[in-house]
Amino acid sequence: MQKRAYGLASKEHDIKNKTGTKFNIASITKTFTAVAILQLHEEGKIDLNTPTGNYLKDYPNEKVKNSVTISQLLTHTAGLSNFHVTNFLDECKFKFKDVKNFVPLFVNESLLSEPGTEYNYDAPGYLLLGLIIEEITGNNYYDYLNQNIFRKAKMTNTDAYDVDAIIENKANGYTFAGDPTKPLKNNVFYLSKASPGGFHYSTAEDLFNFNKALFSYKLINKVTVDLIDKASY
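Above: the chain sequence. Below: its structure as tokens.
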């Protein structure tokens, strides 16, 4: 397999990308979370049609706890709003160390629609899935992914980093912040440590390895992979 790299990892320092440069992969992280949930489903530990409250018994939003199913969280049909484009931008990013630290951003928000009736792309649903992974396994979400997905798929350069961590060979990100007529900005103001909904760092080769492992059924079996395809997780 031939490898090439293009573009700049750092515009301000004129540093070129390498084939092993680590990029923030944003919501591709959700795919890892979905696979983790489906692994637990295969083990008989999760019923996809069961309300969230069966696993998060102390979750304070009663409507979500009692009426939103695991399947609806996976498929963005729970009716939850997307905090990553609202109040998240105003928060100090250093305080997000664990999955539970993200919950106050959305726990008291009303649903946009009745569960199962509309598609509304969101991150909170995947935060809840991360909490469920921790509740069921007794394991830290990040540790679970490292042990059950990244190691199995030979993803040696994929991880969640604190926002102030110094990481070798990491690309900077840039954004127009919604207005392409304005100059590019460094997107560090937008990033936090990865959550189950986004912001892991990875490389092109690691993502290729993930794809190979997924479709050679090393992470979940063929029946479950076909289920992902039909549901568009």
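DSSP finds seven helices and six strands in the chain.
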